[in-house]
Design goal:
Layout (H helix, E strand, L loop, with lengths): L2 H21 L1 E7 L10 E4 L3 E3 L4 H21 L3 E2 L6 E15 L31 E15 L5 E11 L2 H6 L1 H12 L10
Parallel strand pairs: 2-4, 2-5, 3-5
Antiparallel strand pairs: 1-7, 5-6, 6-7
Helix pairs in contact: 2-4
Amino acid sequence: MNATMKRWVAMVACAAALGLGTRAQKVSTNFDGKYDFAEHKSYKWRENRLTTQQNPDTNEIMDRKIVRNVNELLKAKGFVEVQENPDFYLYYNGGGNLDMAAGGANQAGAGPETSADVTPGYGMGNGPALAPSTWLKVNGTIVFHMVDAKSKQAVWTTTYSKNIKDRDKMLKEMDKEVNELVTKSFKDFPPKAKQ
């Protein structure tokens, strides 16, 4: 393979990898264009709701990491967390749901034909050796809400969604995952007020 062909193959592979990465997550934001965050700089956390299939201790750790990352990001943008008289309240709801996808058929059958079958029809004749090829993915979503303290109206909401295919890897890389979801969720915050 000549050098030009190698470069072309490398560029196509990089483009494909980048395309797959961008489809893995999605962020959408809504905000009140009349609310001026330049004049509203203080916030207070309300109760967050994180519902996953993890151990409650893991959820608690993840919640603390999310709150810490959001606080650091908001502080860097000139916002201040207060305990009394905030300009707006901040909280999130997060969780995931399982989605099972089916793959191709394999050697697993429906089971014994009759109760007299010594060798059932599933697996390889020695019991259930192989199951149908399926996999699970988790559709994770977190929605951050900002509510004006006086009017009690939503002034900014962002939703971050990501398909998680390897739960164990996600847990091992929790700091990286939390940083990504916070950074991408607050990428365009604060929004510009409409004049």
